[in-house]
Amino acid sequence: MKILVFGATGLTGRHLVAQAAARGWTVYAAGRDAQRLRELGGVADSSVLDLGDAAAVAEVVGRVAPDLIVSSVGGALPDGRLVDEAGNDAISDAAAGCGVRRLVQVSSLACGDSRPFASERIIAAIGPVLEAKTRAEDHLRALDLDWTIIRPGGLTDGAPTGSGALYADPRVHGRIARADLAELVLRVAASPATARLILSAVDRTTLPAEPADIREFADA
Hints:
This protein has 6 helices and 10 strands, in the order E-H-E-H-E-H-E-H-E-H-E-E-E-E-H-E. The chain is an alpha/beta fold. It has a single domain (about 1-205), classed as NAD(P)-binding Rossmann-like Domain (Rossmann fold, 3-Layer(aba) Sandwich). The chain has an 8-stranded mixed sheet with strand order 3-2-1-4-5-6-10-8, with helices on both faces. A two-stranded parallel sheet has the order 7-9. Helix 3 packs across helix 4.
């Protein structure tokens, strides 16, 4: 399995790279920080690029020709655009243009149809980012790709708990360790059964008691 990770030097991206390498996959990393890319272990090669430059993104995808792409990107570009939208759109378009069918995009709870169930505090804090991520989700969903969108809850650092779980339900709330999220993302990436699905990811121990009819997604 040859995987290309965008956002590889981020807090979640570093877990994705390490865990993919531990699975024996051939890992290619892409990001904006050359020094942090050099510090990554277990990668076959890395690419420094501007995620706001769609041509540069397409060049990396075409050169690597991965079996699958994982996008875990965010932040702001120098011109004020959000990577959450502009970067993700460039990655999605590059996958479509280069014939890479499998793409997993890490988004966020409170995007898309999960927004009505989000707290007012979250919307007030990062509303524009959530809107950008929602537009990126919509852009990806319109493409003829075997995409999966994963919406994690509140992200925490530290050791994996082993309690990360997926839910095909927009009402889900909770938190999840970045290490557990990475494990779920890679599990989903390797599972054809998750193509064209939107899944929430939280630590099952943080899931509220209500609504009581929420069930885990068990096909990944």
